[in-house]
Design a protein that fits this description.
alpha+beta; 7 helices
Amino acid sequence: MRRTGTATNHAKFLTAAGVLLLMTVAIACSPVTGDSSDDFYGTTLTANAAAPPFTLRDQFGNRTSLSDFQGKVVLLTFLYTNCPDVCPITTNQLREAYDSLGETTNDIAIVAVSLDPARDTVAAAMDYSERWKMTDRWSYLVGTERELAPTWKAYYLDPTSLRPSAESDAAASHDSTHRPNAPKAGIDALVQESYLVIHSAPIYLIDQEGKMRVIITHPFDVAGLVRDVQALSNQG
C-alpha cells in the first residue's frame, strides 16, 4: 500500500486507536505467576470463556466457521491486506511460529479475520496469503461489514477507517493523511483510496475445547508464542 504523510503520521497509525478493551471489560485477565502450571508468555484469560462463534469466507471462497477447528489450538488474529506495518509484521511472525512448531502444526489452526470489508475480498485474501506464503498455513476470513462487525465487537476490536474529505475541514483536522495544500484532483483521490484502518493486532489462543485461554499483543516474541501454543497443545 502507498504510504502517505510524514513519520509523525506513520507513528499515529501505529497507535492502537482501535482499542483492545480486554483490561476493562467482562473478560478477566490476570498476571502470569511463576509458580503456575499455566505459566504463559501471553496474558492468561482466567475466565476461560467460550470463544464467540463466527462464520465467514476464507481465501478459497469456502464458508469457514470457528467451530471447524474444534479439537485444535487456534491462533486467532485480526488483519487487513492493505496494512503497511503491523499486519505484515504479525503475518511474518505467525509464519515463523508455524514453521517452528513442526509436527505440532497438525494440532493447530491459524485464523485471520479481516478488519477491512471494503477491500478485503476473497481474491485479495488469496493474494495476500500467497505473498506471505501463508496460503496453506492459515485461513484468512473475509465478509461484509455486517458479517464482520459482530465478530469485531465480540473480540473487543474497534477498527476505524480514516477516509479524508477535501470538503470537510473538521475531518481534516483529525486526519493526518489529509494534505490541505495539495491539488484536489489526484492527490485527494489517491488518499481516498489509500485510507488506513486503525486497529490493535491481538492474537487470541483458543484451546481444543473452544475456550479463550491466552491473549498476546503486538509487539511479541515468536518464541514466546510458540511456547504458549505448545503448552496448550500438550494440555489437550
